[in-house]
Amino acid sequence: MGDFTPVSGFVGGLLIGLAGALMLLLTGRIAGISGILGGLVDPKAGDTGWRAAFAIGLPLGALAYVLVVGGPAPVDVLASPLAILAGGLLVGFGTRMGSGCTSGHGLCGLAFLSWRSVVATAVFFGVGMLTVFLTGHVF
Amino acid sequence: MAVLRIFAALGCGFVFGLGLAISGMMSPARVVGFLDVAGSWGPTLGFAMGGALLVAVPAYRVILGRGRPVLAGVVSPFPQERGSIRP
Fold first, then answer.
1. Angle between the N-to-C axes of helices A115-133 and B28-35, in degrees from 0 to 180, rounded to the nearest 10
2. A 29-88 residues with CB below 8 A of B?
3. Residues of B with CB below 8 A from A59's CB?
4. Which of A15, A30, B31, B34 is found 20 to 30 A from B68 (Cα to Cα)?
5. Can you give B23-67 as a three-state secondary structure string?
6. Do A65 and B7 touch (CB under 8 A)?
7. pLDDT at residue B84, as a whole number
8. What is the mean pLDDT of residues A25-32?
9. CA-based nearest residue in chain A for residue B57
10. Does B47 touch chain A (CB under 8 A)?
11. DSSP 3-state assignment of A26?
């Protein structure tokens, strides 16, 4: 078995869930990152401030962790820049088409007990596993 | 109230990013590790997801039950409510 840090994974997850809950409690918005960023690409008057604030807060939170823990940021990238660009385009297209990403469907949508989000989450994890299988073990 | 909402979103983004970093899921290699079921599968993402839902599922129930958000007039429609598919 590979990567297995269940305690830090779980504690980080609790914070992610807390962030999603606070977002709904305070602003009435779901913490779907693709949707929040998408609204910045296609801006509407009076609807960009909170989006930009969330988008700024997200890397600041990660930066705070890196500063407190010290050392290089725990980010390992396996793919080539071209593959990342292609993957990013597909993620952007797919999350708009499917109305959400890992955070929007996988966290907020599941928390809302939305069947559409259950389907979306099962599909993107399933296709992700298939893609990793094909690119890592077949080709 | 608009300013408070912006600070709230900043704080929520911060906590979200902190959680992502603590869980290890800001590393693409670890996300791929969860998806690599035929290789050296790493289940950590599952624990992160479980922790997040453990908080979010009951919290969403309570928050949606109380009606209006603290810093906004109404809960914004969820994406699926814009379309024809409803739960």
1. 90
2. 29-33, 35, 46, 49-51, 53-66, 73-79
3. 17
4. A15
5. HCCCCHHHHHHHHCCCCCCCCHHHHHHHHHHHHHHHHHHHHHHCC
6. no
7. 38
8. 95
9. A111
10. yes
11. helix
Please list every residue in chain A whose beta carbon sits closer than 8 Å to the beta carbon of residue B7.
53
8 A C-beta contact, residue B72 and residue B5: yes
**How far does the CA of residue A79 sit from the closest CA of chain B (Å)?**
9
φ/ψ of residue B70, rounded to 5:
-65, -40
Report how far residue A39's alpha carbon sits from residue A37's, in angstroms, rounded to the nearest whole number. Answer: 5
Please give the model's pTM, rounded to 2 decimal places.
Answer: 0.94
Please calculate the CA angle A48-B13-A82 and round it to the nearest 5 degrees. Answer: 85
Q: In this predicted structure, what is the pLDDT of residue A13?
A: 98
| Domain range summary for chain A, segments of one domain joined by + | 78-139
For residue B41, pLDDT beyond 70: yes
**A117-126 LR contacts (CB < 8 Å, sep 24+):** A117/B80, A124/A94, A124/A98, A125/B35
At A115 the three-state DSSP class reads helix
Instruction: Kindly determine whether residue B45 and residue A9, on different chains, have CB atoms separated by under 8 Å.
Output: yes
